[in-house]
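Internal tracking record. Fields below are filled automatically when a chain is submitted to the structure queue. Please do not edit lines marked as system-generated. If the sequence contains nonstandard residues, flag them in the REMARKS field before resubmitting.
Queue: standard
Priority: normal
Entity type: single polypeptide chain
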Amino acid sequence: MSKLRYLPVILLGLSIAGYIIVISFLHAVRLSHFMDGFDLAFYQQAIWNTVHGRFMAVSGTDFSQSLFGTDFILIYTLMVPFYALLPNPMTLLVLETIVVAFGAVPVYWLARDTLKQPWLALGLALLYLLLPVVQNGNLYELRERQMACTFLLFAFYFWQKGRLSLFGLFAVLALCCRPENGLVLVMLGLYGWLSGRSKLPNSGRRFIWVPVALGLAWFLAALLIIQVATGWNGFALGSTFAGGSPVAAVTTLVTNPPKGFQQLFPTGADLLGKLLYIPLLLLPFAFLPLLAPRPLLMALPPVGLNLLAGAKRDLQFNPFDYHYQASVIPWLFVATIFALVRLRTRPALASKRLPLVVGGLLALTLFLNIGLNLWPAGLELDGFPRIKNGWGPVLRVKENARWAAGKALLQQIPADAPLAISNTWAPQVPPRHGLWLLTDRPLYSLHPARDAQYAFADLRNSEEAAQVQKLLATGDWTEVARQAEYSLLKRRQ
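SYSTEM-GENERATED OUTPUT FOLLOWS
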């Protein structure tokens, strides 16, 4: 019996290792099959520049030459030593995957300590690793939000255990991922107050005011000092919200309700998507978090920001895909664990039946995972979320014979030449001091070819084809090569 005592921990370690191996493999497939975009190249450039003495420098935006001008995300500075040893985008993607995978550890610890049943704890840890939004958010290029999920889980575990120094460490790591996690910490302080944490011995009040003070200080410093000092003009954050900012999205509902409602719900599909958002978030947990809703206080800031998303930003309220739910996931697990504690006290659901409940959650999540990934590619339902970053879409992607021609054209570009490039080709070129997205996109430069010496375009993309014609019409550029509907342009000397 003593030997079996360690079996859940061994299986947890094997599951985490398996997750890392599988997701890293899928990352490699995505990268080699042109499924990643300019964002990966943008973050890699900041890290590469830091290795070469230009701290978090980027070239892809007009309003700032620092990554901190877009968002104050310090977590990428911690990746610099690893990237210096192995300068490759896969280094960054594997690092992210390792961090995400270890989020299963605090889920296991919290469930083990609360439910007193290691096998149930293992089941909930496996639920974390199988959750579609965990896997798909991890697979969507390189994303700091997904790493915050793990750090918030560790922070809450140590907060719950009364270990303030370790809580502070992981809380700061979560803040390094996204400044808006400061609002999550504020809600953690409120949760502690409502839960009577201040009445506990050993200075319980510290576990209320420390999260609040730390969260508010970081959030305000990031938005009002750091980003302003590095050239931020409010565009990066505001462009994703209805009305141009989260404040405008809320105030317009009061000052001009018809306009505010139209901005938040411009089409029937967006309205349906937002109505389905919260129920579908709860679905993999069989709505158990509603039995212990207080931890969901910490989910209110990210959920609110996602619901304030503007037109064509349905990826923010997609409960199965992308990375915008990373700061919501921890509190769904915490609430589920506490709900299981409540169920255990009911005669009809005594502790002997809890394994059936956890097994049912695993079966439901596995069914969702398989169903969403095998969903027919051509079957679209307006308002119902689809996944684009799961293992299904990755494994269905096929080689394109044109890619060899594009790669041959890239060989003609000097490794350090300033370059404006097609979205999915950006991660394929070596990082350099000057790199821009060829087409105009929110956040990125509105003048992508202004300072570039070369431009690489996929002419099957209508925007890029139009950009090529625009550049050639100026007389400042010449087309040096065209092959398989790829075009390579060079600025005239």
